[in-house]
Specification:
The chain is built from ten helices and eight strands. The protein is an alpha/beta fold. The chain folds into two domains: about 230 residues, Rossmann fold; about 70 residues, no CATH class. An eight-stranded mixed beta sheet has the order 1-2-4-3-5-6-7-8, with helices on both faces. Helix 2 crosses helix 10 and helix 7 packs across helix 8.
Amino acid sequence: MPLIAPSDYRPPAHLWNGHLQTIVPSLFRKVEVAYTRERIETPDDDFLDLDWSVSAVGSRPPSAAPLVLLSHGLEGDSRRQYLAGMVRHLTARGYDCLAWHYRSCSGEMNRQVRFYHLGETGDLDFVIQHALQRGYREIYLMGFSAGGNVTLKYLGEQGKAVHPSLKKAVVFSVPLHLTSASRRLEAWDSRIYNIRFNRTLKRKVLEKAALMPNAIRTEGLRSVRTLREFDNYFTARLHGFRDAEDYYRQSSSLQYLDRITIPTLIVNAKNDPFLSRECFPEDLARQLPCVWMEFPAEGGHCGFAPADRRNPVYWSEQRALRFLKGIG
């Protein structure tokens, strides 16, 4: 499909660069969603926490509504504003929403030694199967940042075998090429994000090490300063990869895009401080039959605040709904 250009996104005047467009919505937007939590047990004696928000539109029987299954970003959860705003917008328009948490991200440490990572698609499949068992037959996938990478990789792995109930996918701010995206986060102007991720990730390692002292190694953890160093020291080792580079190479969703067989929209802002130039594959976008790509000049990382500050609906929410209801 052709690259969608130009994009119609325009930022508000007071957010004049990618950092402001990333940070201000995250810190100052306040959207509250009344979720109903469900815990499901995994086959390996662990658990996943699912937050449901069911549409009040109409009087349909349970599971008759279309379902949007949302995957959050690195160290995120269902209450992050980019996700909560999307849920509020979609449930008001007739969609049920299921925001699932990666292992260790729901507020309670998971049971197994493993955590989650950007190439882990087994848990996403498990949640999809759970939704199918609940009776949903019209399911849309949505992912943000790390969750977008997981979503795209999953769809590429499924290829033509994807379940017929999965109709479309929309992802935002996706690090399609993990190696170069990790280097982008090491740039001087993105250090603040590295600091934030490392603070929460290292805290989790120490928490789990206290529970499983014989399984988790913490020596050298204090010296970790970047996400790449953390992935090299911990993520890769714990999840069966040789090192961070091997983990990034196997987990990057870019190599799976040509296998996706359902209509899928990728939206990455050109001024996203998390993304490298490899995350904007314009030539590839023109060759893929099922994947649309839109690269607005602005928007930040999971930002996309509306130009009109009085508008409670973000552009990303309008864009997603437009794609779910139509094409392009």
